[in-house]
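User: I'm new to structure prediction. If I give you an amino acid sequence, what do you actually give back? Let's try with this one:
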Amino acid sequence: MEIDQWRREYVQGGLQRSDLAESPVEQFEAWLGEVVKAGISDPSAMCLSTADASGQPSQRIVLLKGFDARGFVFYTNLKSQKAWDIAANPKVSLLFPWHFLDRQVIVRGVAEPLSDTEADEYFSSRPRDSQIAAWASHQSDAIVSRQVLEEGFETFRQKFDGQDVPRPEFWGGYRVEPHAVEFWQGRASRLHDRFVYRSMEGGDWQIERLSP
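Assistant: Good question. You get back a string of structure tokens that encode the predicted 3D arrangement of the chain. For your 212 residues, that looks like this:
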């Protein structure tokens, strides 16, 4: 496998300053709309990067569940590795790898816990089996077999039979408040277009073009 020879040109388009919206949220919404229109599965999938107290980074794919001027929202088990990392170091990064359009979006910011009200509202909208799975899984803990997981699921399925499934206290969400959002568009000869929005005092955004 000659991996070092795998390459292609990025020729799906370019990105100019005049193409950009005034805020990164507006620009993100426009690009996300194009991703959805392209019919690609999991358009909201993003790589969440965290680092623990020692500085050891970790990455995993999670799903974006909302965004607005306040930031980007995701949900998780609050006793997971990502939650422990965020408790020690709330600075995180999000990456949307939209390779099929030769695009990436990178968000750098701070993760803040969502309110119980917000978490309750979203949890109640989840499929019932997903709600039960939240109770059955001690995310990131070692288990001896899949059977343990499936037995736990069945236990909680029976426990909540005939009633609404409540949100576990150890399950919630975070909002990543961005201080920088980069939009990357691949170009031929590796002369990519990169623009970053940087937050300024008063809620304004400064836009800079970056060298590829």
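You can read the tokens as a compact description of the fold. Here is one thing that stands out. The two ends are 28 Å apart (CA to CA).
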